TrEMBL record:
Spans through the membrane: none
UniProt protein name: Dienelactone hydrolase domain-containing protein
Alphabetized InterPro entries for the sequence: AB_hydrolase_fold, Dienelactn_hydro
Highest rank taxon of the organism: Eukaryota
GO MF annotation list: hydrolase activity
SUPFAM superfamilies named in the record: alpha/beta-Hydrolases (SSF53474)
Dienelactone hydrolase domain span: 38-189
Length: 258
């Protein structure tokens, strides 16, 4: 697998600011003997849950604004964004060198070694205790690959997965996916239409969705996003609306079967 050049070379925006609407809490279940925090946001009476997987920069103001706004969209979701990295996001000195970026991801963001699934399921259980009855996944960049891996597991509790500016997403990495996906590409990602077309042969209750933002760079909804830029902010709000509509549609389709 390889990252886009933009993912390797583009740093996080340093001047981003946002007053968090949610709060950090500790997950009830320890993972690998360690306590884990998560960022919780959204209306606490919602029965629809979203687990969010941040990008390689970890918690950043733009990402947390993205979480807050998604959680309030389309009737509201309880959104939990666990801390997968423990030691913070990728150091700036790794950027510009693809081998260093991939090495850091291999050390801190490996699906099995870093217990991505276990952390995610711990977050699900807490949302379940908080009243959620349906669950979807949203990721950014590396996080979208993690969502694809999670919904490739047998017996996954999730109804859908995906997210904006996905890295590593291909026919190969999505061949075992068991839910529909939403993929919102920037100008820097490869053509994802074949992936979505293949997913739509699987006969899921809701079709997978794809939209390309050819005027946006990789990472515009996450750590690399500068939402003081009117064009980026407008595109981010559009992405959030598309995501919220998709997750609401999936939840409604699940409710109709109950």
């Amino acid at each position: 697998m390889s990252l886009t050049a933009a993912c390797c070379n583009t740093p996080a925006v340093e001047n981003a600011q946002w007053d968090n609407k949610g709060e950090f809490v500790t997950l009830s279940t320890e993972v690998d003997g360690q306590k884990r925090k998560t960022y919780l946001t959204g209306p606490k009476d919602s029965k629809r849950g979203i687990i969010a997987v941040y990008d390689i920069f970890g918690y950043r103001p733009t990402s947390q604004q993205f979480f807050d706004r998604l959680a309030e969209s389309h009737g509201g979701f309880q959104l939990s964004a666990p801390d997968y990295f423990l030691e913070g996001g990728i150091p700036p000195e790794c950027l510009g060198d693809s081998s260093k970026v991939m090495g850091w991801i291999g050390q801190h963001g490996d699906y099995k070694k870093n217990h991505i699934l276990e952390v995610t399921l711990a977050a699900v259980e807490d949302l379940r205790k908080a009243g959620c009855t349906s669950f979807s996944l949203v990721g950014q960049c590396w996080g979208v690959l993690m969502t694809a891996k999670i919904v490739s597991e047998e017996g996954t509790p999730f109804l859908s997965a995906g997210g904006p500016h996905p890295s590593f997403i291909s026919l190969e990495t999505t061949k075992d996916v068991k839910t529909p996906m939403i993929l919102l590409a920037s100008k820097d990602e490869a053509d994802l239409v074949p992936v979505v077309e293949h997913l739509n042969t699987k006969g899921f209750p809701v079709e997978s969705f794809h939209q390309r933002f050819d005027n946006m760079h990789h990472g515009w909804t996450g750590g690399r996003g500068d939402w003081t830029n009117a064009e980026q902010f407008k595109a981010a709000l559009e992405a959030i609306d598309l995501l919220g509509a998709f997750y609401a549609k999936v939840a409604a389709a699940n409710d109709s079967k109950l």
